[in-house]
Design goal:
The structure is a homotrimer.
Chain A lengths: L3 H13 L2 E5 L5 H10 L3 E4 L3 H10 L2 E5 L5 H16 L4 E4 L7 H13 L4 E5 H7 L4 E4 L2 E5 L3 H12 L2 E5 L3 E4 L4 E4 L12 H13 L5 H21 L4 H14 L2 H7 L2 E3 L1
Parallel strand pairs in A: 1-2, 1-3, 3-4, 4-5, 5-8
Antiparallel strand pairs in A: 6-7, 8-9, 9-10, 10-11
Helix pairs in contact in A: 1-9, 1-11, 2-8, 2-10, 3-4, 6-7, 8-9, 9-10
């Protein structure tokens, strides 16, 4: 595939420094803030109902991540999401652990019902459960799916009108019509906490500067995966991998994206 | 002492990847998640009352850490703890700062009263205060104890039926009958935030795969301390020590535990 | 300028290990805890209304940071702040994002109204908005100010009786009479999340051991900036910069402060 389109989105993020508003979990929030900066964005985290909508109105994208949800946080997400919808700001939803508990599944379904989500990004278990497939989630990790993941993702995207990112060794990105497969990444990314959340943040950065959701998501996952590949080469284990991941994400150039992105159509 | 028993628990954690549910503080939660992975477990953090019990029911161990407690979090801990008790899942309690404020002391006493705790891990000040000894806590740090720490820990364990881990340069582990002393560790571990919390997480990983609480706790503290010793050799200060600690914990082998654990009976 | 006075404050922090109580945001709280330790202090984070005042009463300084504020947290800040005022403990206020949303601006004004703040530290946008100048904040970042920053800071300090730290490439510190300019620091400090928050924590450490607010703040910013300069030399990007920053802060000596602080009077 011609990677020029991805490198253009990538460069645009670096030029425009979009403000990316997050309502996210307190486990990986610091990683999300830092990877947003490394990807070219300006992160802001504001989860009080009293300001979440106002802050979202200033942002280029809104990332909602339910990793440590509670009913109050979901209300703030609804407030921020409605403001984002009113301002035509794309919302990226990361339904962490949907399928593991009723609260997570039902809260995600409520967000999908009340808000116009641009991109939903989850593992095959989370997306599978939401799509009504026979899928399993253990804690916040993928634990199995019956059926073809590409078919499940495509049907879910077609039925909802949402661009679906099903993360895994190969990431599946689809709006129901187009399907892109991103093969960048490294296994060590699954051995630290937060790479999934960070991928959503980078997707927010890219979606803030591109109205083509599929391209924005593919740019984010290819670039982040590429940074992960390079960081893996320079680290001794999961501990040293993390600082290296931020270094590589910050050092990544548009040219690196052209030469290194491994994206194909399905 | 024959370290074979510790290396077996250590290996079992790596094989079984137990889910370790945490309700913990927002200061060191990311470290807890990552060290859990490095020790072989799968971390999940879910503190909403609406799901804490449900999530605990799926887990292999439950870690309760009151580092940034509030009354709502304590209710969630009670919910999760009751579910853990119902499912015979071991609870590890880290009473951070008990003795420093009334809220911390009283909340810990309530958790001890309403839940069947498997292992309590604290510094000599925290354990001392809870045991009714003349002990002091300053902020969240040990500030002094009168009396013999081993006696205080043993009596507290005997009276409560809880396995007690009193952390320090030498960690004291006792169920009121057996007493193990773990000498692994390095002073730099006291110069970063979160090593105490991380030790509790690793204890959760080990307790999930061993019904012998004393052995599980000794395995955790010896392995974590050993990783700390090795990380200290490879780092220049507390900043570089932290990534090295995760690297070394992830790289540690059962054989390393056999040769490196320094555990003796008192 | 003779740097002896700064090196003395710096040394005193290392000797006295002051307890620094934080009510701060969950994005950068771990960094705040660790930099406090590296600067010689003992961090404690306790934000429940039920204990915030009690904990503040034991501390050497109280750092209030509104990065992820909500109405409940503001109440806890008021409780802790009143206890700090009663005990003559200095309060350092970091009004993160004041000017960006009504909640942030109004909450800051309420804290300024109800508490006796010793030092307020913000970027030129935040301080400018609070001073009534024509200033802008985008998310949590400085976005512009009309007028002379030194004049605005000095007038604000004079009118309020609060020592003002306006952070930037050159930090401006003033109590309305004296003005110090600190030129230490490195641009990469603006490329990671949390350096502003960490600067406030280090200011808390220094304010706990010096009643001269201007000197305390200048010591903190010079020492922290100096650590940043050294860390920048030893790192490859923002990811490796962070552990290096903690290493360098921990390794910094009083002699380094004498030779390296770049502070001048305006």
């Amino acid at each position: 595939m011609d990677n020029q389109v991805f490198s253009e989105v990538f460069s645009r993020a670096r030029e425009h420094h979009p403000l990316v508003h997050h309502i996210t979990n307190y486990v990986t929030v610091n990683d999300c803030a830092n990877i947003t900066i490394c990807a070219g964005g300006a992160p802001v985290m504001a989860d009080a109902r009293e300001e979440a909508g106002e802050m979202a109105g200033f942002a280029g994208a809104l990332v909602l991540n339910i990793g440590t949800l509670n009913p109050g946080i979901i209300e703030s997400m609804i407030c921020a999401g409605k403001a984002a919808n009113d301002h035509k700001i794309p919302i990226i939803l990361d339904p962490v652990g949907a399928g593991a508990t009723r609260l997570r599944t039902e809260s995600t379904l409520r967000l999908l019902d009340e808000l116009a989500i641009a991109i939903i990004k989850g593992n095959a278990g989370e997306i599978g459960v939401l799509a009504g497939a026979d899928a399993k989630v253990r804690g916040v990790d993928f634990a199995g799916i019956n059926g073809d993941p590409v078919d499940i993702a495509r049907t879910f995207a077609r039925d909802t009108g949402i661009t679906v990112v099903m993360s895994g060794p190969t990431d599946i990105i689809t709006d129901g019509k187009r399907i892109l497969l991103v093969e960048n990444g490294h296994p060590v990314m699954g051995r630290i906490s937060g790479t999934g959340c960070m991928a959503s943040s980078v997707t927010g950065v890219c979606a803030a500067v591109s109205t083509d959701r599929v391209t924005a998501a593919a740019t984010a996952l290819a670039a982040f995966g590429l940074a992960g590949e390079r960081a893996a080469e320079k680290s001794r284990g999961p501990g040293s991998f993390r600082p290296a991941l931020f270094d590589e994400m910050a050092a990544l150039t548009a040219k690196d994206v052209v030469t290194g992105a491994r994206v194909k159509t399905a």
